[in-house]
Each structure stands twice: as C-alpha cells, then as structure tokens.
From TrEMBL:
<comment type="function">
    <text>Probably functions as a manganese efflux pump.</text>
</comment>
<dbReference type="GO" id="GO:0005384">
    <property type="term" value="F:manganese ion transmembrane transporter activity"/>
</dbReference>
<feature type="transmembrane region" description="Helical">
    <location>
        <begin position="101"/>
        <end position="118"/>
    </location>
</feature>
<feature type="transmembrane region" description="Helical">
    <location>
        <begin position="130"/>
        <end position="154"/>
    </location>
</feature>
<feature type="transmembrane region" description="Helical">
    <location>
        <begin position="166"/>
        <end position="184"/>
    </location>
</feature>
<keyword id="KW-0813">Transport</keyword>
<keyword id="KW-0464">Manganese</keyword>
<keyword id="KW-0472">Membrane</keyword>
<protein>
    <recommendedName>
        <fullName>Putative manganese efflux pump MntP</fullName>
    </recommendedName>
</protein>
<keyword id="KW-0812">Transmembrane</keyword>
<keyword id="KW-0406">Ion transport</keyword>
<comment type="similarity">
    <text>Belongs to the MntP (TC 9.B.29) family.</text>
</comment>
<feature type="transmembrane region" description="Helical">
    <location>
        <begin position="41"/>
        <end position="66"/>
    </location>
</feature>
<feature type="transmembrane region" description="Helical">
    <location>
        <begin position="72"/>
        <end position="94"/>
    </location>
</feature>
<dbReference type="InterPro" id="IPR022929">
    <property type="entry name" value="Put_MntP"/>
</dbReference>
<dbReference type="GO" id="GO:0005886">
    <property type="term" value="C:plasma membrane"/>
</dbReference>
<keyword id="KW-1003">Cell membrane</keyword>
C-alpha cells in the first residue's frame, strides 16, 4: 500500500472518529454543567475514550450478521439513555438537593459512556464488513472521543461557573435535545 492510500485512509478514519466523538463533546458539554472536579473530568474522558475503543471493536468482531438489527437498536438505547439523563438533570436543577440521581461516577459513568458510544458500535459493525484496520481504527476513535469529551466537559464547567444554578437545566436540555435527535432522526 502506498503512502497516499495510507494517509487517505487515516484521514478518513480521523474524520469518522471526529464525527463519532462530536456526540461525546455535545454530551460532555451538557454534563460539564454539573459541578465536576478536574479529576472527575479526567476519568470521564478516559472512560468515554475506552468505550469508544471497546464498542467499535466489539462491533467489528461481530461484523455483518447483526449490523442491520443492532444498528437501530443501539441508536434507540443511546437516545433513550440521553433523554433520561437530560430529564433527570432538568428536574434536579429545580430541587434544592445538590446530588443528582445519575452522576458521572461509578454506574452513572458507565451509563453515560455507553450512551455516547453506542453509535460507534454500529460504525464498528460497518467497518468490520469492509475490513478496516482494527487497531488503528479503535485507537483513533478512542483518542479523538477522549479529547472531545474533555473539551466539552471543560467548556461546560466554565459555562456552569458563569450561569450558576441555571447551568444544570441548560445541560439537561442539551442532553435531552441530543437524545431526541437520536430517537427522531430528521
């Protein structure tokens, strides 16, 4: 394979990784409006990056057999999880309690990471069919989504500092809108 073909494939994978990571950025932007410590932001980014490695890897391994069925199911589940997280954040912004029902810690972090990486499972299924370079693909997906998540969380944290208590409602609205977008593709 010549240099042009390899660089073209890498550019294509980067664009795909960036597109997949934009949901992590958007959701990170919303979730960043919850009061998070820098250590939590680092863990969230790493966890989402790992999920963006695991999910397409699993998808690539399964391949063509389940792609049609799981593609729409994965999108539906991801949208539903984001809807629930968004509603929970909006409702908790009206309460005096500072502890949200679902936080990006422990199982909440797993749910959060799963919701933004389900679409990479579907992409992995497609890439498995076409024989994409597995290691390069999943590493690129993981790194790009981790960086975009950190960017979204840090911007969300800054907005949270500016907006105070209204920021959680705004963050929930962002998650709600993104969940609706997944459930009702236009």
């Amino acid at each position: 394979m010549n240099i042009e073909a390899v660089s073209g494939e890498l550019l294509t994978l980067f664009v795909m990784a960036f597109a997949l990571g934009m949901d992590a950025f958007s959701v990170g932007l919303g979730m960043g409006m919850i009061k998070l410590k820098v250590k939590q932001i680092i863990y969230i980014g790493i966890t989402i990056g790992l999920f963006h490695v695991m999910m397409p890897l699993i998808g690539m391994g399964i391949g063509r057999f389940l792609s049609d069925k799981f593609g729409s199911i994965a999108t539906f589940v991801g949208g539903l999880l984001l809807l629930l997280l968004g509603i929970q954040m909006i409702l908790s912004s009206f309460k005096k309690d500072d502890n949200p029902l679902i936080t990006p810690v422990g199982f909440g972090l797993v749910l959060f990471s799963l919701s933004v990486s389900l679409d990479s499972f579907s992409v992995g299924l497609s890439l498995g069919i076409y024989g994409a370079r597995t290691l390069v693909t999943v590493i690129m997906f993981g790194i790009v989504s981790m960086m975009l998540t950190w960017t979204g969380l840090l911007i969300g944290k800054r907005v949270q500092q500016w907006m105070g208590s209204y920021s959680e409602a705004l963050g929930g609205t962002i998650l709600l809108a993104f969940g609706m977008k997944l459930l009702l593709p236009i």
